[in-house]
Amino acid sequence: MELYVHTLGDFDISFGGQSLLKESSRSYKLYKLFEYFITFRGRKLLPETIIENLWQGNESNDPKNVLRTQIFRLRQIFKKILPKDIDESKYFNISFSNGYYCFEIGELAILDVAEFEKYIRQGDSKKSENIDDAVKLYKKALKLYKGAYLSENSYEVWLVPIRNHYSRLYLKALFKLIEILKEKEEYIGIVELCEEAIIIEPYEEAIHIYLIEAMLKVGQINNAMSHYEYITSLLSKEMGIKSSPGLKNIYRKIQDYYDEKGETDIGNIKTRLEDSSLNGAMLCDTDYFKFLFNIQKRKELRDGKSDFISLITLRCDDKNRCDIEELKKRVRIMTGVLEKSLRKGDVFSFWNDTQIIILLHDAKENSLGEIETRIKKNFSGIVKPDSFKISIEFLPLTSEKNVV
After folding, report:
1. Which SUPFAM superfamilies does the UniProt record give (predicted)?
2. Fewer Cβ close by (within 10 Å): the C or N end of the chain?
3. At residue 349, does pLDDT exceed 50?
């Protein structure tokens, strides 16, 4: 009988759809060790590496002996939960050779992430041969993804790159499937797909945009507007960010569906072209920022006005450790600060997760210090100074020498 190991979402082991772990007395340390072995299956693992990742800060005088004891107890659990009179190595096997531990998955054990990756690979290979087969394979893969990899272990550092890997695979497969369904004009399918995906990845903006576009295609204009208002409110409250260029573009598409078809006049065109939020600086993506940068540089060479480029960097204080996700969140909060602190003609964009680039139009060199002070003051009014620090640099568009 085959055994199934669930890692995408909550961790579990099941036979015939029945959980084996729910009936057993679970030990946090033991199952964390089991999850670690499953994650790094087939690899040679030094005892020191396992101890450092799982029990960093353990005050035991003999951590290797603690590890040996835990592995012995884990083997005992295998004997308890696995069917009797069947070779355990057909399910799981832990060996020790030349100073390394190695965990192997047997032929009677099925791992969901292995199936997940297999279906995606098969879908990719079928995409150019048989599009219908590719759709079925991508759907099988997405059905397996019930949440973040080993989602119960939210704070394990060693899990972060693995969890991100499977999340990226999921989103890539999702977007490939959506694009196929768009070509087939199966918009109801896209709506259903996106609604399921949003439960798993609620902050992935692209999913919401695909959903709204599909709603518009099937005539659900009011639903599209309601969802737009929901996602913009969610991102503002949870992430501290306002509408991105992608969301602004989808809002314009919603307005297009509301507008009556037919001839228009120049006044209506002007209204449609205008940005609804003209207060403060404008946030744009990096490609558009680059376009504006080169336009302004050409204009400066022609009319002699002084434009500056500025770079804001948020980093952890050297004396303190800080959470990277919290650092990224503070960078996003800076969006509202810059809209308030800068002028209407200024433009800014996210350069990466911790840096923001600004184009200051017609700025005076002697006013740069005042701009820096205003930004820092407005930011500290929202986010109390803690283990983060801000640096702001300025550079003239037509010079390579830093001013500040």
Report:
1. C-terminal effector domain of the bipartite response regulators (SSF46894), TPR-like (SSF48452)
2. N
3. yes
Give the confidence band of 28 by pLDDT, cuts at 50, 70, 90: confident
Q: Flag whether the pTM goes above 0.85.
A: no
- Distance in angstroms (rounded) separating the CA atoms of residues 19 and 4: 9
**403 DSSP 8-state letter:** -
Q: Which residues of 159-175 are buried (b: 16+ CB within 10 A; e: fewer)?
A: beebbeebbebbbebbe
Output the CA angle 387-167-125, nearest 5 degrees. Answer: 150
Contact (CB, 8 A) for 238 and 279 = no
Structure tokens at 147: 């949440």
Which CATH number is correct for 3-111, 3.40.50.2300, 3.20.20.190, 3.40.228.10, 1.10.10.10? 1.10.10.10
Summarised one tens digit per residue, pLDDT across range 277-288 is 556 677 877 877
Is 254 in contact with 224 (CB distance < 8 Å)? yes
Residue 136, number of CB atoms within 10 A of its CB? 14
CATH architecture of 112-258: Alpha Horseshoe (1.25)
Closest by CA to 189, choosing from 166, 170, 210, is 210
pLDDT at residue 324 greater than cutoff 80: no
Phi, psi torsion values for 277, nearest 5 degrees: -115, 95
For the purposes of burial, counting CB atoms within 10 Å of the CB of 16, is it exposed (0-12), middle (13-18) or buried (19 or more)?
exposed
